[in-house]
Design goal:
Two copies of one chain form a homodimer. Chain A has 287 residues and is of the alpha/beta class. The first copy, chain A, folds into two domains: 2-113 and 223-285, FAD/NAD(P)-binding domain (3-Layer(bba) Sandwich); 121-217, FAD/NAD(P)-binding domain (3-Layer(bba) Sandwich), CATH 3.50.50.60. Chain A is built from seven helices and 17 strands. Chain A has helices at residues 11-22, 55-68, 121-124, 133-136, 152-161, 224-230, 266-285; strands spanning 2-7, 27-31, 72-75, 78-83, 91-95, 99-107, 129-130, 145-148, 168-171, 185-187, 191-196, 200-205, 209-211, 214-217, 235-236, 239-240, 253-255. In chain A, the strands form four sheets. In chain A, strands 1, 2, 3, 4, 5, 6 and 17 form a seven-stranded mixed sheet that branches. Chain A has a five-stranded parallel sheet with strand order 7-14-8-9-10, covered by helices on one side. In chain A, a hairpin with a 7-residue loop joins strand 4 (78-83) and strand 5 (91-95). In chain A, helix 1 runs parallel beside helix 7 (266-285). The A-B interface holds A 11, 14-15, 18-19, 22, 44-51, 53, 58, 61-62, 64-65, 68-69, 263, 265-268, 270-275, 278 and B 11, 14-15, 18-19, 22, 44-51, 53, 58, 61-62, 64-65, 68-69, 263, 265-268, 270-275, 278.
Chain lengths: 287, 287
């Protein structure tokens, strides 16, 4: 079992890994891609570089640095994180290739991607629009459920929801469906509006109108927020809430960088990583 | 008049200057040397560098970066900072070469250097040992005063103290005296102990014993803490106290990096600089 599993290889995740490794903990860093910096061409304001830096190049340098200092890095996609139900200090992290165990987990996957940008989305969030099948699925037993998504993440949510109802429609929001969804109805149109009264009751696409009692969002791949939410962590305005030790309300689950909000700058994410690492080191050594 | 005068060219000061310059403020950075990093050979834990970095090299890169983005940099030694007494938003910064004016000042001069490491020093700090002639000199009118130091900073304190008493002894603590001190008594020996009862009453050197009612410390060159103290800023356990906007209790006087305490790491200082810069930008634009 690893001491820490760090999820995310950007400034916060790599910075934390470097500090954790140097404090002689067993660290595993799991990363999917180079995050938002991958598309950031010119970085001038991160101290210590006399020339303009390319975002992706900087992330790669940070990972090389972590690797040089001994951090184990896996380029895999995290699909699920579970905390041991019996109160053990153990998290199980399932990726598209393997399953790993860690005493603690640090979420450092950057800012949560924007969700559906359509009329009614904000209005009905929490009023029938949900981001977590395991949290809210049971409310809609035998009701009409819509689920938005096109990848593995969606099909995992679908599987959970299928325990509660068979009346499920998948909305790909005009993205290519990359998973097998069996006999479920699929709407391939772009979503244009969400309607309702007190609560949601319709999803409007460019071609059609669908009645729903609930709409579950599972677009793209799960974000740090999605994992955090599933474990019962408190989220405030799309940011994971942490204490001054970077720990969420879930014991042993830490978060750093853009996913906890604040200044969305490399400098802040790197500093977050260092602070979180020191807190995790203390925490693990006291277990 | 500059919008901001940043004092200190290390991670916090340069990072802040870069952000301030990019927010189109008129920034002047004044620095004396490369600070504590000058002597730090191997830096491995600041994110973004695949190879080990040399501290001084890193500081120089940060300054080149600031310069490239348009920050004006002066290599001068700050001797005094004064806030306008009539409530104007104006600070006057006096260096060994020039006098500058700024609407705000950011102190980023690193951690305050250790003071006298002798028996009794801690015990009598605040009990006759003082760090500010302007703050405490008047208490010792016509008393026996010692002043510790060997440079310009000491002679400035001496000038202030001479308004209150003529019975002053200068202790160089075995450092070379680089300023003219006229007819004042000078003790060139190494200080070995501070003695007293309720309050200080003796300075012991390797060769002699001196009776004093007070001892003013003005060793080397003034630190951020020394400036802050003189302006009435609150210092706690050797750290300058700032609010969540990095402002001290003195309106318009900000501080960032090691001098405000917390994690003494580059990552934290750089992040401090970014945060302070954003707060200063808001503050200056609202003046």
């Amino acid at each position: 079992m690893h001491d820490v599993i760090v999820i995310g290889g950007g400034p916060a995740g790599a910075s934390a890994s470097i500090y954790l490794q140097r404090s002689k903990l067993d660290v595993l860093l799991i990363m999917k891609d180079h995050g938002t910096l991958e598309k950031t061409g010119h970085i001038d304001n991160y101290w210590g570089f006399s020339d303009t830096m390319d975002g992706k190049e900087l992330v790669i340098k940070g990972l090389e640095q972590a690797k040089r200092l001994g951090v184990q890095i896996k380029e895999e996609e995290v699909l699920d994180i579970e905390k041991d139900l019996f109160g053990e200090h153990k998290f199980t992290v399932k990726t598209d290739k393997e399953t790993y165990e860690g005493k603690t987990v640090l979420l450092a996957t950057g800012q949560s991607k924007p969700n559906l940008r359509v009329k009614g989305f904000k209005e009905y969030t929490g009023k029938g629009i949900s981001f977590c099948a395991i949290c809210d699925g049971f409310i809609y037993r035998n009701k009409k459920i819509g689920v938005v998504g096109n990848k593995k993440f969606m099909s995992e949510e679908l599987e959970t929801l299928s325990n509660f109802t068979k009346d499920i429609t998948i909305f790909t929001d005009a993205n290519e469906l990359t998973v097998d969804v069996g006999d479920y109805k699929v709407c391939h149109g772009k979503i244009t509006e969400i309607k309702g009264d007190e609560v949601i009751n319709q999803v409007i696409t460019e071609n059609n109108t669908y009645d729903v009692d609930a709409l579950f969002i599972a677009m793209g791949t799960p974000s740090a927020n999605d994992f955090a939410l599933r474990m019962g962590a408190i989220i405030d305005k799309n940011n994971i809430v942490v204490d001054d030790k970077h720990m969420t309300n879930i014991e042993g689950l830490f978060a750093a960088g853009d996913c906890i909000g604040g200044l969305l700058q490399i400098a802040k994410a790197v500093s977050d990583g260092a602070h979180a690492a020191l807190a995790i080191n203390k925490y693990v050594r006291a277990l």
